[in-house]
Amino acid sequence: MSASGTGGLQRRRVPGSSAAPSTSWAAGAVADLDEDTPPRSHTSTPVHQENGGESRSSWDVGSSSRTRRRDGDLGNPNSPGIASFSRSGGGGQSITVTDDRGRRVAYDPRDLNDDKETNEHPHLTLMEEILLLGLKDRAGYLSFWNDNISYALRGCILLELVLRKRIAVTKDPSRRRFAVQDRILEVIGSKMTGEVLLDEALKVMKACDEPMSCSQWVDLLSGETWNWMKIGFQMKQVRERLAKGLVDKGILRTEKRNFLLFDMATHPVADTATKDAVLKRILVLLTSSSSSVHANIFYREEKADVTFRVTRALCLLCCAFAANVLENALTHLTYEARETAFQKADDIMNEFSQWPMAPQTPGGGIGAAPTAASASGARMNGTGIGEGSVLTDTYEEASMGVGVTELARAIRNDYSKADESQYEAIAGLLATLAKMDSLI
């Protein structure tokens, strides 16, 4: 039988022929043909079927691309609403749609299943909240003399990844020999978060083959390294990109201000209610009249059911203290109250930047097995909570904010819903930020 005029793509087994088809698709398509079976066309011939009133177009067996288009207008591939479904050999599925302007857009439908990601995390990330605290409301720019915020923002990125269950400390039995900030971080979840900076940092960590500790990753993302081969790990223009992200979310607006000889883009606060909510979380921890901590007092303004609320508030306070933006939240206090609040923040930072966290509290601290001595309230060797600070007695500690014991109890509830390696990573990153003054 001679080939048809469609390009000679039709093949048939010839009796006694020893020549095998040269192409793999031809071999698979012809293998089940009998000598008396009439040949089938392996060209891309569409076969229309009616299924429940829905018009579909399926391709013949010989087509190398198993693509289906669902639409009433199958003849026009550029018509809006057409979606083509294609499967790769690995089982992945992608959908290509055509928008109103005739542009074809491909996406993975699994990327849209982010309801859990949206419902468990607040509208603003940790680094956006720190930047918002550092910005002047009307001027719209950070202090020129703040050298700490750049380094602290990189730590906030890693803390946010930990809170989103993307990274954690490697579960190596020998890690106990090292300080908590020197323990190795690893990627435990590769799903993208939807936040550009977080996804960029996650890709960098996944691409790195060499194990890095908490302090090393903060240094690399900040560009604090003498190894020129690792200088590419530095995340650049973090503050500018965060400000633009807040503009997109409607929290800030963009203006231009003239500074002597040049113009500079500034970002004044447009949504003061959002910043007030961030300030309130810090003031609850530092200036509350009650020493008890309730998780529902944090992130009340969020529609989502935010997880790890108390832990997030703790990270916000410690990062604000390390980034030197905490003073902006305490401007309405008197000088004595402001100094007391700073000392309170320093005490909280020191207690929760070690492992186990807050070891002097009942229960032996977060991450430690309860012992008889800790359960009975016996003091352990070493400096106690608040010793060496301006706090003189228990009443004064309770009257100026939440107590460390109550804070540890509330965080222990969050700890029961997470993995130990995640809170080890939080302690290691907080320890890195606590020693930032000696690093810069």
TrEMBL record:
Pfam families tied to this protein: GPP34 (PF05719)
Q: Where is the composition biased (Basic and acidic residues)?
A: 98-120
Q: Low complexity compositional bias: what residue ranges?
A: 55-65
Query: Topology versus the membrane, per the UniProt entry?
Result: Peripheral membrane protein
Cellular component GO terms, alphabetically? Answer: cytosol; Golgi cisterna; Golgi membrane; trans-Golgi network
Establish whether keyword Cell inner membrane is in the entry. Answer: no
Keywords noted in UniProt: Golgi apparatus, Lipid-binding, Membrane
Q: Is Iron set as a keyword in this record? A: no
Positions of the region Disordered? 1-120
What is one GO biological process annotated to this record? Golgi to plasma membrane protein transport
> Gene3D superfamilies annotated for this entry?
yeast vps74-n-term truncation variant domain like
- Of which family is this protein a member? Belongs to the GOLPH3/VPS74 family.
Q: This protein is called what?
A: Putative VPS74-protein
